[in-house]
Each structure stands twice: as structure tokens, then as C-alpha cells.
Amino acid sequence: MNIEKISQGTTIVLKLTGWLDTQSASLLEEEFNTLDSTVSSLILDCTNLEYVSSAGLRQFVTIYKKMKGNMTLQNVSDEIMSIIRMTGLDKMIKSE
Predict the structure, then answer these.
(1) pTM of the entire structure?
(2) pLDDT in tens, 25-35
(3) DSSP string spanning the chain?
């Protein structure tokens, strides 16, 4: 998985490309941990995200909690959104 970070003031966009699975979930965690405390909101751009495993969903939840709800999933494919809905995460995490 590749992650591109884009700063927009106090908002950070992380563009995710590839598979977010057991092997790559730690990359998202590491990238999130590099953000400083001035970041007020986070957007995970999923335009090029092809697959999310339970480990990836766990990272979404962990980051959502650390951001105190100020996280949005953007451009989520229908396949990934159906997984998010099945788990009930769509009721917690905002998506556009």
C-alpha cells in the first residue's frame, strides 16, 4: 500500500492506494502517528483503495477514536462501503 499525505491547513488528507490488510495496516498506523497535535481533522481518501481487511477496518476505528470523530472516509468504492456497512462502521465514521 502507498500513502500520500497532503496538508490543507489543520486538515490532513491521506490518499490510500492498494490493499489495506494485515501486512499494510501498520503503514497507516505509522503515517497517522507522524501527524502533529495541530491536525484538527483527517480525511482518508480511498479513491485508489482496492481492498480492506479486518486489520484495515481496525485501523479506521483506532484512528477515528484518536481523532475524536474528526475523520472522514472519502471516495469509498461500493465494495468497500458494503463491508463498512456490514460491520456497522458507517454509523460511526463519516463518509463522502
Answers:
(1) 0.94
(2) 999 999 999 99
(3) -EEEEEEETTEEEEEEEEEESTTTHHHHHHHHHTS-TT--EEEEEEEEEEEE-HHHHHHHHHHHHHTTT-EEEES--HHHHHHHHHHTGGGTSEE-
